[in-house]
Write a structure and sequence with these properties.
Layout (H helix, E strand, L loop, with lengths): L3 E5 L6 H7 L4 E17 L5 E19 L1 H11 L5 E10 L2 E10 L4 E2 L4 H13 L4 H16 L1
Antiparallel strand pairs: 1-3, 2-3, 2-6, 4-5
């Protein structure tokens, strides 16, 4: 079966959620995406995670090995192609440079804070993957500061 590498940085860091949505997906390793920034955007009250280029930032992420059926399930969850688009990024894994598919929010939505449940889902993912939570907290804080200005 043909598989691909998927890079998760938001709610799909949550292993329990991914096991439910994509039972054939297999977590591979955590990674740091350099030159990108985690932020939250949305229409109205509910912000969703996305990444944007920023040479001074890093994003914590989890690499998954996914099947075509996993990708179809993720396409539905991510609202592809209307809400999120797919891009291929180069990341480091086990000392090698590999290509990973990632969902990035389409242009347009303004900054918006995540709901409490969405926040907790992502935080749980950070904790289960032993990722640096300050990256997540800083992204939420920066988003909320920008909204209040």
């Amino acid at each position: 079966m043909k598989t691909k590498i998927y890079l998760a940085y938001g709610s799909n860091l949550n292993i329990a959620q991914m096991r439910y949505r994509c039972p054939l997906a297999r977590p591979l390793a955590t990674t740091i995406l350099k030159g990108w920034e985690l932020t939250f955007r949305g229409n109205g009250k509910r912000g969703v995670a996305t990444i944007e280029k920023n040479k001074d930032s890093n994003v914590a992420a989890l690499l998954w090995q996914i099947t075509p059926s996993c990708e179809k399930s993720l396409d539905i969850y991510e609202g592809f192609p209307h809400l999120y688009r797919k891009e291929t990024l180069t990341v480091k894994h086990e000392g090698k440079t590999i290509k990973a598919m990632v969902y990035i929010l389409n242009e347009g939505p303004s900054l918006a804070s995540p709901s409490a449940s969405y926040f907790n889902t992502i935080l749980s993912g950070y904790r289960s993957c032993n990722l640096d939570e300050t990256i997540f907290f800083n992204a939420v804080h920066k988003t909320m500061e920008a909204i209040s200005e």
